[in-house]
Each structure stands twice: as C-alpha cells, then as structure tokens.
Sequence to fold (299 residues):
Amino acid sequence: MSKKVVLVTGSSSGFGRLTAEALARAGHTVYASMRDIAGRNAANTGQMRELSQKEGIELRPLELDVQSEASANAAVETLIAETGRIDVVLHNAGHMMFGPAEAFTPEQFAQQYDVNVLGTQRVNRAVLPHMRSRREGLLVWVSSSSSAGGTPPYLAPYFAAKAAMDSLAVQYARELSRWGIETTIIVPGAFTKGTNHFAHSGRPADEDRAADYEAGPYAGFGDEVQKAFAEIVPDDADPAPVAGMIADVVGMPFGTRPFRLHYDPTEDGADIGFAVLDRLRAEMLHRVGLSDLLKPARP
Fold:
C-alpha cells in the first residue's frame, strides 16, 4: 500500500473523526479538518495531537470551514506547502435539521445546502487543480441511504441536501475520469449511536408553523419518528465499520476501487435503489458513446 496524503472534512466527530483516525493508523498522512480548531474544537484538536504523538501516526488537525471559500483555499495551500501533494479528499462535513419541512425558513434550507452541497464545491475547487495537474487522485463522498432508500419524515432539509450532494458526486465522477481521478461514494444507513447528527440537529426557525403541526394531527410526531427510527436500528449498530470501509478503499490500487459502497444495518433498500439508478445512468452513457467516462483512466 502506498502512503497517501488525505484531507478529511468534518473531522471533529462521527464518521469524519473515526475515518481520520482509521486512515492515520493505516499509515496515511491525514489532515483532519474542522472549524475553529483554536476555539470550540480546541479539545478535539488536542486529543488528535495527543493520539498522533502517542501512536506515532500522522494525524494533523487543520482549520477548514467548508462554508468559506477563503478557508478552503487556505487549508489546501497549507496542506500542499507541507506535503507537496494531495491524493485523497473525503467529503464528510455535514449538518442535520429535524422538524416539519414547512417550518424551516428558506434561509435555513439554504444554510443546509451551503454546508452539505456547496461546501463540497468549495473544497473541490481548491483541491482539483492539484489533482488534475498530476492526473491522479481520489474523491470519496459520504452520501446517505436516504437518497435511494426508505426515509422517515421530518428530515426534509437534510435528505434534500444529501440527495443533491450524491447527484453532484455522480456528475463529478464523469467529468474527472479522463483526468485519471477516481470517485467512490460511501452510502451509510441510519445510526442513532456513535454520531452527533441527532444530538446537534437544527430546529425550525418558524416556531409558529412548527406549533401548528404540534397542535394538529402531527402532535408528538417528532418523538414518534425518532422512536420508530431508533427501533429499526440494531442495538449493536456501529459506525466504525464505515471508517474501516473508507480506509480499505483508500488503500486499494488504481482502477480497483468500487464506485459505490453501502453499509446499512437497517437495510432500508438503498443498495437496491442505487443499483438501479447507477445502472440506468451507465446505460445512458453507453447509448451516447461516452462509456469511457465510467472508468477513470490514466493517460
């Protein structure tokens, strides 16, 4: 296995934190990026540096706010200055909102898209010129089973943004394949333990609209959804295998990496849904004579 230089977004907790540590333990140089490493994430930064020193691994906290183009550019400039290259980007940063869709303001939807979709665009624009100049690289996207599987209500902003991000990942895969840049989309299912999605999820800003739902036929529905959601997640559901799956993908040789991988203890059907979608998309490319875009090729 060749040692890679990896940038992970949203590394303070959840999949990002687990994956950053797994990749570093696998021998890679990992830049674990997050917002405000000297402030709100100072404790996480300290823990990572302590772990890096204790285990002799290359786990480097890096300031990066995916909502800021300047921050994304500065982070990548720092990484390139220290290592001379970037091999892998893991698009993981994300935020969840929970509540009736109507009660979220358009500005809240925009904020959700800004983190979960536009954030990947800012990072890509900072990173891809370096990958394209070398004609190699790997983008790993953390998608969601909600985009093609069964979904509970009251998560509309998050699910809509994740679906948009998945579509963007597919399009990028086609537009980067002739540059020799690979794509793998990771599709996790629901986890109620081991991540901070529900604990830190946003709530509707329009409290009057939310109250209408709570006073009407959807009274107590938020609790009902969360209870039902938690009951279908196995007690031993652990997000750690997602990190291991990503580490395995990063360690694979060029040309052998899968386009999409699933890890879903709830078995919500996304593996079937995406298999159909990806096949239909591939068939269209075959029909129009662009099937070479399905497999990255080194020039």
